[in-house]
Amino acid sequence: MPDTIDLDVPAHEHAARLRAGDYTARTLAEATLERVRAQEPSLHAYITLTDELALAQAAAADERLRAGEGGPLTGIPIGVKDLLSTKGVRTTAASKMLEQFTPVLDCTVVQRIQEAGAVIIGKTNLDEFAMGSSTEHSAFGPTHNPWDLDRVPGGSSGGSAATVAARGVPLSLGTDTGGSIRQPAALCGILGLKPTYGRVSRFGVVAFASSLDQVGPFGLDAEDVARLLGVIAGHDPNDSTTAPVPVPDYTEHFGRGLGGLRVGVPQQFLGEGLDDGVRQAIEQAIGVLEANGAVVDRSVTLPSADAALPVYYLIAPSEASANLARYDGVKYGYSYTSGASVEEEMSLTRGGGFGPEVKRRIMLGTYALSAGYYDAYYLKAQKVRTLIRREFEAALSDHDVILSPTSPSTAFRLGEKLDDPYAMYLNDLYTIPANIAGNAAISIPAGFADGLPVGLHLAGRPFEESRLLGAAHAYAQLTDWHTRQPSLPAV
Amino acid sequence: MALTADEVRYIARLARVALDDDEVERLRDQLSGILDHFQILNDIDTSDVPPTAQSFDLANVDRPDEPRPSLDREEVFANAPRREDGYFRVRAVLD
Lengths: 491, 95
Fold this sequence. Notes:
The complex is a heterodimer of chains A (491) and B (95).
Chain A: H1 11-20, H2 25-43, E1 46-49, H3 51-66, E2 77-81, H4 108-115, E3 119-124, H5 158-165, E4 171-176, H6 182-188, E5 191-194, E6 214-219, H7 222-232, E7 262-264, H8 276-291, E8 295-297, H9 308-323, H10 342-353, H11 356-369, H12 374-395, E9 401-405, H13 421-425, H14 432-437, E10 440-449, E11 452-460, H15 465-478
Parallel strand pairs in A: 2-3, 2-4, 7-8, 7-9
Antiparallel strand pairs in A: 1-3, 4-6, 5-6, 5-10, 9-11, 10-11
Helix pairs in contact in A: 2-3, 7-15, 9-11, 9-12
Chain B: H1 5-15, H2 21-37, H3 73-76, E1 83-84, E2 87-88
Antiparallel strand pairs in B: 1-2
């Protein structure tokens, strides 16, 4: 047994060492908890650490490993976004509304990673109800970017991204409604994948916008992301929006290289509003792809994608205003109980329990759905959604992937965009179209601008996550961006 | 697209979200600004375009109508703010 475990390695290396008996799941869990706890004063990536649960799961994993059983996740530490219900473990959605809420069920995804033997280290921080792009809208305070503690990690799954980037845990789970996995992955310099709509169960996941939400993995390399996706993907009888489509081996495209990969690069995604440093890194990445056999086509256009942002900020808040109607102070959650009437108590419960961004979106969605405005806003947005989807279908009929930056800028300073909601919304410019169209999409580390990570975004056809992961794997054979690691203050 | 304070209060009433006067003013300003950005949708011709509610073509998913255990009563009430005699307690709805 070594004195120290190398915690900087990807999950598949831990898995190999656990199988070889170099260390046990228990010692790995203890070392991980120690590091995560030491990083917390700098990062604040977690809302709740789950030591007891982690050690129990690690003990169970060790038994399976001793018996020669288990799979790629057995004994592997993982962080879980605090939007995913965990039985007996407080699940807050980073809201005062659910500060004291303890689910009586595990969500399907958590159930699946537990069956696979994963060790849950804690519940990670997020923007309240997953609404935001910086993790500053958490009722529990912001998460900090491990590359620069004065900057945001992105959001909404900022805690899940920051803890993996800091090598606290090798894997984590997030959710992505408009970019909430891919944008923080980009800003923290790791991989993040949004599965195809319908690929992963949402049963037990706190709902935000039901026609857009997907759960997905964060990791340090394509193999880890592929293995975790393989565990959580698939049909769930408890979620009738999951697709009855077989789950492939998501590493099936590894080793194929980039030769012949047809890459569409819409010029509109490299135009106005994009930081120069990000543009340079992306152009350099395109050069690497091209030099290694990819066929890059810059003539592809997605005319309606320019309208994706308003479409999203009508559809998502509209769905949110309906989904969040359940927080009424009656069945669970924060409750104001000194009002004069049912209506007053409900209004004061919601006025006091929700933070500013959640209120803003509920108001926006309620307005867009209200009598007299429904056709002009909500229905119009749904029609433009059809156009965006058709254009993606057409573009992906003769291209394998659509390439863009993941985010128009690198990590911005805490507080910088907090008072300007629309400036914050613009962070999601390049990630939103994949949610609107329902495609699979990934963010891959692709360089740095002024010392901060830049993410490369690839969107693919529905249910072709393997192709995206194959491209990410091939790109990582040619560059070493994914191995770059932030140095946190000595802990 | 400038909203009035009264319109903001009306939407807040529909959404059952209590707002103080500062919040009403801030939201009036912010929502008006956000709605301005949405005007570009009016430039897109959607006259023959059907709406998309969700991107994956699944409809009317059925399962066999077989009884199965539901949550235990104690679990249902585990997070209830107020309960009484096996019910969720609320203020009187009717006077």
